Structure formats: structure tokens, C-alpha cells
């Protein structure tokens, strides 16, 4: 039954799942010109201590009501927030100052869901609406195969052949880099091994970091070899658990990490939730299909007001967990929702499936990063939400700069 539902979700065009007057043409990716972010100057900083604890919550969050009263950031303030730190695998660190060009400053706007078609029935804590992806036909194929696990305990998503997007708090608590982030590794879901037992070997470090994945991997290979008529390995009762889709990981070192100064403020103030995102560059490129970056539309431009994301929730023992839900409210930089999620899923890429106007097919793009559970001020009342950081045009331009090293390929998003 669960597999049937997943087939319906992923292979039925989004507009057919929506009642009312909303039409297919309302839900398209529209390329638009984005501001330019240009690297101006890079400074060397002292090496971090790497002593912070992984911090899933910031001390205070400026919610919807709070954001209404904020003045529009000046150009110099935006350039300061979008300047960024880079920490390298050898422990060295730099700060790059940036300039923002072609930006039209507009008054701060708070967008609400008033009048939007939103399924309120999905905004219920306590009813677990998550799906564990157990079937290997889904687990090792797009879009689920884009989900990755970080050695610090978070999730992330592949956005290029060599880059992972995640939450900044997964590697930095706003003042210092977290323990373990100096030797940060990313676990990619493993595809089927075609070389028998050869790929099971590898360094002791890789086997240790896979947290027992070598034992599960052997069982997975046994099932695959039986289908091919290959040689068989002796099995114990673990075979049933493997058939239920517990993944194994291929662990890859991170070459460098980029974090915006809006988050990595050091001792100059609390980290801003609006900037809870980071980009990891892998030491070696992967060959998986990745998910492209997009700019977050308003809720009214999301089919059914729905978002989707997959991550490795800590309460599901290394299973990949998928969920979808409607967005409850939104501000210029954040999406407020009640998607069921546990720690471990933070850093997941939030995505939509909209129509590509040129190719006339449906395409998924990442439009936010899941940050986690927060208490926020909403219309003068403290409410708890699960919060995602939206990919705005400025953030799109910054992440694009991090990926390509220059802004030449970042004019439209």
C-alpha cells in the first residue's frame, strides 16, 4: 500500500492532485534574473577550535510578526551577511568579502497564507505521516538517491557532481565549528555492487564510519547475487532486515565548507536562522543524478501549498525517511510548516515538482533547507513550527557562486 502511494506521489503530475480552480500553467519554473554576488577580497583567519556541540536550535527566532517590524537591510548589511567563511580539510580558514550588484532594494514584505489553498489537516503533530523508503527501487533512484548523511549526524542533498547543500548548524553553532567537522564526511547511498565482494573491502575507517554498514552490505549483495545466479554467501537471520531497505553508505571526505557570515558571526551576536545553510565540496566527484537549485516561489505557486524532503531521522535507524506536507505560513526568508521530522533530518533539501516551461515536463528543484524545530513569534503569540530556510534570489546567487567559483553561470535562477 505504501509503495502504491509513493508511485502516485512521484509519477502523477502535481496539478492533477489539486482540487479547485488552480490550473497546470500556474505551477511552472520561471527563470528570472538574479542579483550578482562578486567575490571582492579573501583574508586568512586563525584556524577554528572545532569544539562546539552540534546545535539544532538558535536562541531566538525573529518570527513573522517580528519580521514585519524589521527595517529593510541596507546594501552594506546584506554584503556583510553574504560574505562567507571557508574552512578547508587541513583546518585552515578564510573569510571572503563580497559585493552585491544589480540588486533592487525593496521594502521588507511579510507574505502570509491568507487566501492560499492549504491543507490544514496535515498540520498536526503527533500523527506520524513519514514514509520510510524501504524498497530499493526507490531508495537507489532519483529523487531519493540525492539524500546524503553527514558524519556530524545531519542530512544533506546533492546539488552538483561535487557539492552538498545542508544546514549551517550541522557544522557550525554560530560561534565555532562543531566537533567532528574538521574531518567531515558525507555518506552517499550505495548503488548495487557489480563486483561481488570486492567493494565490501576498503579501509577500516570507511567500514567504521558506515556504522555497521559492511554487515548489511554483505546481505544486500547476497540478494543481488542470487538474482544473477552468482556465488552465494552464508547468511544469518539478518537477511530479512536487509530486504526491508536499510541502506549502506559510501563515505566521502569533504574538501571545504562554505558558511555565510549571517550565520557564522563568531562572538558578534546570535546566528540568524535566515542564513542556516552551508555548502560542502566533496573531495571526489560522484556519478549520481543530483537535484538542481531553484528559487523558492510563494505558497500560492506551490501545488497544494505542499513541500517535500527526505532525510535520515535518528529514530528510524539509518532508514531514509520521506515526508510531504503543506506550508502553514511564510516570511521572506522562512517557510513555517508541520512536516513530521526528527533530529537527523535537519539539513535536508526541501523541494518542489513544477513544470519546466521549455521542455514541458515536470522537474524537481530544491527551494529551501530544512532547519528544524523552532519556537517563533507569530502575530504576538509564541508558536512552535518546523522551519525551512528559503532559497531567495540572493541566496541562490551566493550558492551558485560557491559551486562555480565565479558568477558567470549565475545570472538566472
TrEMBL record:
Residues 192-253 are annotated as: Disordered. One of its GO terms (molecular function) is serine-type endopeptidase activity. InterPro entries: Glutamyl_endopeptidase, Peptidase_S1_PA, Peptidase_S1_PA_chymotrypsin, Trypsin_dom, TRYPSIN_HIS. GO terms for biological process: proteolysis. The keyword Glycoprotein applies. Residues 192-207 have a biased composition (Basic residues). Residues 208-228 have a biased composition (Basic and acidic residues). Residues 1-20 form the signal peptide. The keyword Glycoprotein applies. Residues 140-201 form the Peptidase S1 domain. GO terms for cellular component: extracellular region. It is found in: Secreted. Keywords: Disulfide bond, Glycoprotein, Secreted, Serine protease homolog, Signal. Its main location: secreted. Belongs to the peptidase S1 family. This is Inactive serine protease 35. It comes from Aotus nancymaae.
